[in-house]
Amino acid sequence: MEGTEDIYVNQDLPSKPRAKKKEARTGAQRFTDEDYPDYENISIPSRSKDGALESQSVPIQCAPSKRPGPSSTQKLILCLYLLLGLSFLLGIILLSLVLVKSSEFSQKLNILKWELWNVSSTLHKEHENIKKLETEIAAINKKTNSYEKMASQLRSDLTKNTNTLDRLKNQVENLNKAPQPGPNPSANST
Q1: Is 117 exposed, middle or buried, given 0-12, 13-18 or 19+ CB atoms closer than 10 A?
Q2: By the 8 A CB rule, do 39 and 57 touch?
Q3: How confident is the model over 95-106, as pLDDT tens digits?
Q4: 41-45, 59-63, 81-85, 136-140 — which is least confidently predicted?
Q5: Vertex 156 angle, CA 153 and 157, to 5°
Q6: Quick one: how far is CA 51 from the chain centroid?
Q7: Does the predicted TM-score (pTM) go above 0.85?
């Protein structure tokens, strides 16, 4: 790449002064940067074929430095922004689904309302027809009751008249059987 300089890890950089602690360090903390000034010569312990430990010094090859990437906090913030954006996107998708479903539900409710109104009007008409029929049935019942009364009156009158007729018939028969006053027609012929 033209115009860029190769940057190596082992360039002479000013070292940062470190604060010295009064406590004695233990383990890996007891080694300081003065023990390993440039970290160029790293010795790797390895076993030889006869089983003895040997330390081999391996020089570190310098590689060109890359542009510094985002730190871990920047990565976390980027992930949070990404999650926030995804949650907004998911919220928008869910809101649109809710709106679609609510419009479908509203249409179904309007259809049900219309059907209910039709059924209600039909029931109202049938209720009015039932009232008319009930009034007609009540009028017919009154007429039949009056006709039954008239029929029972006629029956009672007929029974009285038949009794009267029977009595008159008996009287006529009795009169026919009774001797008539006056000349006897059978006595004249003798």
Answers
A1: exposed
A2: no
A3: 999 999 999 999
A4: 59-63
A5: 85
A6: 76
A7: no
User: Mean pLDDT score of the chain, rounded to an integer?
Assistant: 78
Here the tokens at position 103 are 């419009």
- Report the candidate in 125, 129, 9, 143 with the shortest Cα–Cα distance to residue 66: 9
Say what the pLDDT of residue 50 is.
74
- What percent of the chain has pLDDT above 70? 59
Cα–Cα distances (Å) from 62 to 6, 10, 13, 14, 143, in that order, read: 11, 7, 15, 18, 124
Question: H helices within the chain, ranges in order?
Answer: 72-177, 185-188
* AA identity, residue 158: L
Helix, coil or strand: residue 100: helix
Give the rounded distance of the alpha carbon of 4 from its chain centre.
65
Full DSSP string of 131-169: HHHHHHHHHHHHHHHHHHHHHHHHHHHHHHHHHHHHHHH
